[in-house]
Structures are given as structure tokens and as C-alpha cells.
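Researcher: Good morning. I'm working through a list of sequences from a screen, and I'd like to move beyond sequence-only analysis. For each chain I'm collecting a predicted structure so we can compare shapes side by side. This is the next one on the list. No need for commentary yet; just the structure.
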Amino acid sequence: ARTRNFAVIAYGEAASLERQFTETDIFGAMTTFQGEEEGAKFEASILADREWFDLQLGGEVARIDVDDAVTFSFSGFGNFSEPQEGSVDIGRAYAYLDIEMPEGVVWTVGGAFEHYEEDGGFLPVAVTEWQPRAAVRIRPIEAIELRGAYTETLSRRNLFPETLDRTTLASFNQFFAETPGVEFRALSGAIDFRPIRSIPARMEERR
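Model: Good morning. C-alpha cells for this chain:
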């Protein structure tokens, strides 16, 4: 018989990040990017492990203040700097349900409702959307497992990389490093042969 558990996890954090890099183009002009981020985040999640299903409910809110600047340096013409200040507001709720039916087949259904808004900065973004997610794991015999997953996620600034949300579905990553505010869709599949080898296959679509 399965162990039945119930847990509530909550945490808050504050963080800051500074970054700088310089690029030189073919005409000799130098572009220097400097940025600073600082913010706070709170996240909570409820986990229920019952006899025939697993359930996770969670959510987070975060606020990030952004201070960016780009400096263009032209040989013989001096420097030109363009400062940009702004803020990022994040609100997200997510849920997952795992059911084994029939024996040896585990279905996962869930998703997230997210609001992501960058005000100011170089690329203002405002996105509010529902992101469906689903996965299945099938083990016809002990040595073989079939896995598949479909996920939709939204990339964001990496000031708070830690999360209580599931970072994988059916062992496939569902969060990817992209420009903040980019919507990402991934359809993934794999056949695992244990203990021989794994043959993965992946199809992705971005918008």
C-alpha cells in the first residue's frame, strides 16, 4: 500500500544581481551593457500524496526592480549612454494531478495561470495566459518505459531560479532560458530501455 502524505511548503526570499558584458562590432564600436536587479518573492505549495493520486497546488508572487544601461563607444566620437529603469511583476498559480490508471500507466494533467509584466526597460512585456501541461509514462514491461509530455511555459528573468513548481514533466525539462516574456511550447517523447540505453526524441515549437 502507498504511504499517504500531506505537506504545505512556503518560503520568501530577497535577492539582487549585477551583470555586465561588452561586445565589439565589425566597425570597431563597443557596446557595453550594465544591469542591476533586486527584488523579493513569496511562494507556497500544497502537496497531497493519496492512495490513488498525487496532487500539487501552488502559487507565487514576485516584484523585481530593474536598472539597465547600454553605453555605445565610437572611436573618435566619444560615448553615448542610454539608461533604462523599470520593474517586473509576476503572479502565477499552478496545479498538477497524477493518476495511475491502469497499473503501469501514470497520467499527469495540469498547468499554470501566469501574469508577467515588465514596465520600462528596453523591451516592455505584458503577458497573461493559461499554460496547459500534460504527460504520460507507460511501462509495459520492467525493462521498457515510454514517456511523453506537452508543456507551455513563459520565460522570465533569472533573479529567482528556485521554484516549488515542477521543473520537469516525465523527466523532460519544462523551463528554458530565453528572452524574458517569450512563450515556449515543447512536445517531447522518449523510449527508455533499462539498463541498456535511452533513445530520446524531441519536437519543439516557439512563438
